[in-house]
Predict the structure of DUF4931 domain-containing protein.
Amino acid sequence: METKHLYFNTSIGVQKPESIRNKEQACPFCARDELTNIIAVDGPIILLKNKYPVLENAYQTVLIETDDCHGDLSSYSKEHLHRLIQFGIKHWLKMEQTGKYRSVLFFKNHGPLSGGSIAHPHMQIVGLHHLDYSVTAVPEMFAGIVMAEEKDGPRFTLSTRPRVGFYEFNIEMDDSCYQERFSEYLQVAVHYILNHFPFKTSSYNVFFYHLNGKIYAKVMPRFVTTPLYIGYGLPQVPSNLEWMAEELKRIYFS
């Protein structure tokens, strides 16, 4: 029977440094002269092989976003934002095109509830040998209330059928070429979560998907996950989506 699970190597996992909660931990990404297995560099942006490959049957890489340990996607200059997202998408799709992997994940953790361990801004690109993430990526999870869109260009929505539940922001663009508004909408979603969200949060995830000729980014604020989703896989849809969509449009697009 085909497996549907990723296997986590705990003997490697216990060796990983943790600097999100442990502020005394030296940041491994700040010691740039000591980094090894570097794949590509673009100024302050570095892609390298993950030193702690905890996932079995996978090829794991880390994308260090900046040389500023306290930087964040929400506050990058437009120049650095576009440079970073273009770099990430380029190497993500390049890994896909090798044909070595069943599918390739591209994602970002930020904050103590995001599932990450290093505070320094980074993303991960992971090639999976035996699993295809697209099997569970249904079109309806990217549908929602439109908050901004360009003619024949990127589209920014708030999910009405969220994947996990409650509030999920979606950005989509055609995969034929990079469009700047895609990254700018992504930055708006992250900035709104960290600065204007109605519930205090310091954690979020960004997940990228390449499906049917489109590139999607799903941005999720992270809280303690609802037990109804953990126990039964039941996503919940909040009653104030229309209010939130209007509030975000008022702040960023009015």
